[in-house]
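Retro notes - structure team

What went well: the batch runner handled both jobs without manual restarts.
What didn't: labels got mixed up in the shared folder, which is why I'm recording both outputs here explicitly, each with its sequence directly above its tokens.

Job 1
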Amino acid sequence: MKTIAVLPAGSVSDEAVKRLFAGEPMNWKHHRLIADVFMSTVNGVSDYSVVPIENTIEGSVNLHVDWLVHEVDLPIQAEWVYPSIQNLIGRGSEAAGEEGEIDFSKIKKVISHPVAIAQCLQFLRSELPHAEIETAGSTSEGVKIVKENPGQGWAAIGTMTAAGNNGLDVLSQGITDHDNNYTRFLLVGSEPFTARQSDKQKTSILITLPEDYPGALHQVLAAFAWRKINLSKIESRPTKKKLGNYYFYIDIDMALDSVLLPSALEEIEALGCQVRILGSYPSFTYEQLL
């Protein structure tokens, strides 16, 4: 039985990975912080770590990208997407109006993960402009804090699963600003993922240019372009070595063992660039996991 490190029970990460491994017996190791999730697998306590890496509304989760790049050396073994449906969670009795309706003016503080808060800004600005906003390590941690502090008029943003696990009420359902709010997750670890099969394969790489000179990035992209290799994402991030020095994180819609990709990477290395392979792995849409 495989052991999976993931953010706390009831978080979107927890729901998402259980969808990926649906029907498979697994041992779950829940951690409060993403650093602990990563280190669980680094230290051999778990076989895989689950990493939320990108969101429809907020884009890349930079902290998690930096951990993947700078702090650990764990290959990506799979990616999948899962809807981030956030809800306002608290005690109905504390937020009840005179006629039993939810009175948002009685909520004094809202607690959640920064990404979840950003996903619900329009709701917070329109319904809870008076409320203090406090961040937590995960959405489920925010819900737990509300559970442990009754009578304060506090609420959290999180999943319906987290509300049920903590005996709290859903004060307002589906409060995200956009209906198409999905999060992309990575499964990282040393063993290939075999629980499911996908027709779509991706490869993620890091490219560091030898120096900053005109046309350098163009030369790199040309190696993919003339071979008609599609790049689904390209993002620059600081190398943390020198101000203005960046690496490029690139997702490629092709397996590493395809005919064209290895020669493209060889051409890029011949330009003097450093190329690091982060993983070549199956990619799953949400529909594939239903």
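Job 2
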Amino acid sequence: MLIISLSLFASLFYVLATGHVLSRLFHKEGPNQKLTIVLSTLAILAHMLLLVNSVFTSEGQDLSTVNVALLTCWVIVVSVTTVSLKLPATLLLPVVYGFAAILLTSSLFIPHHIVMQTINVDLGLVIHISLSLLAYCVLIIATLYAVQFFYIDNRLKHKDLAIMHSHLPPLMQVERQLYQLLTIGTALLTLALLSGFVFLDGMFAKEFIHKTVLSLAAWVVFTGVTLGHHQFGWRGKSVVFSIMVASGLVTLAYFGSRFIQEVILGKF
């Protein structure tokens, strides 16, 4: 009952925060920052309490795909909300808040209990998992910035006067932040892959090869786009599309097979 209450409470305030930001998206002064922070903070705290109660159970640690996804989502929400305190992120907030609300609500209907009685603390494994989680979160935020860049650029090319008086950030600022995040995320993904090859056995074993191949494919795309931008000034629609494809690949690598096994096939 506590899990359901926390999920619904967090979802409600994520929805309220989303609605407030969207209602002021094209207003010159933008959303009320204090109200946005209050609504999102209540949602974030409830989301955090949900994670604590979902992962740490009396039987052990529940590290199912859904719980890992909820944790990843929480990190992204906290990161984007923190960034919004200093930099304009008006277009990103309703996306991350809205997705968080959908994920929290959906988690109530998806069976996701995988209890581990003990967790063997392996320093190499901890390093690999931490780097992988950080890399994924940063790269997903970079992807959101890419989508934001494409949206603003497209509106400007169509000479939409409404965007000129909106609270959306300047195009060049979004582009600069996009490639900063992309560079950091790609570096973290590089370290995550290297740590996997160094500390883990069987990266190319039958049960893990799809994750390794998808992660390497995503790394190739991210690295290519990052180097292409810094060396040759690559930008525009093709770059945004490439970033989205790479994000899709790394998402499949991190969550795809586990979701199929745990949820669709019911192998707990």
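One thing worth noting from job 2: The chain is about 75% helix and 0% strand.
We'll revisit the folder naming next retro.
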